[in-house]
Amino acid sequence: MVSPIQICRLLKCSLVILNSMHRKPEHVMTFLEAELGTNGSLDSYHKLEVNGRFVPKNLEGALKRYADEYVTCRGYWCQSPNSTVLSKEDGIWCVRCKKCKNRRYLRQG
């Protein structure tokens, strides 16, 4: 069983990671709610609070999947973890790398 202190430490660490991703907290929250099968909310400081108990490994895995899908460039030579921008082009979400200019469209659903 994971102690609440470990979970709090992980969430604090996760917030630092989320800030470095430069993504809207609401977008990350929606993704994590779907991945973890729970509900959450953002407080006035944009700190994510999720309902339930989770193993840190599961939270880390969900954050990694978010980064793989919405943050990290998939350009063969680039793979930049911090230089992509999420935007909507013609109604479709797109991840575009500021560094190599690679662009990919996200699946709907």
Mean pLDDT: 75
Which series of helices and strands comes N to C? HHEEHEEE
- Round the Cα radius of gyration to an integer and report it: 15 Å
End-to-end Cα distance, whole Å, is 33 Å
Strand order of the largest sheet: 3-4-5
For the largest beta-sheet, the strand count, sense and barrel status come to: 3 strands, antiparallel
Spans with pLDDT under 50 lasting ≥5 residues? 1-7
InterPro entries: IF2/IF5, Transl_init_fac_IF2/IF5_dom, Transl_init_fac_IF2/IF5_N
Keywords: Initiation factor, Protein biosynthesis
Organism: Artemisia annua (Sweet wormwood)
Pfam families: eIF-5_eIF-2B
Word description of this protein:
The chain is an alpha+beta fold and 109 residues long. The protein has 2 domains: 1-71, 2-Layer Sandwich (Alpha-Beta Plaits); 73-109, no CATH class. Helices cover 41% and strands 19% of the residues. A 3-stranded antiparallel β-sheet has the order 3-4-5, with no helix packed on it. Strand 3 (84-89) and strand 4 form a beta hairpin. Helix 1 (4-21) runs parallel beside helix 3 and helix 2 (25-36) crosses helix 3 (56-70). The chain starts with a helix and ends with a strand. Residues 2-103 form the Translation initiation factor IF2/IF5 domain. InterPro entries: IF2/IF5, Transl_init_fac_IF2/IF5_dom, Transl_init_fac_IF2/IF5_N. Pfam families: eIF-5_eIF-2B. This is Translation initiation factor IF2/IF5. Keywords: Initiation factor, Protein biosynthesis.
What would you say about this model in short?
This protein has helices at 4-21, 25-36, 56-70, and strands at 40-42, 48-50, 84-89, 92-97, 103-105. With 109 residues, it is an alpha+beta fold.
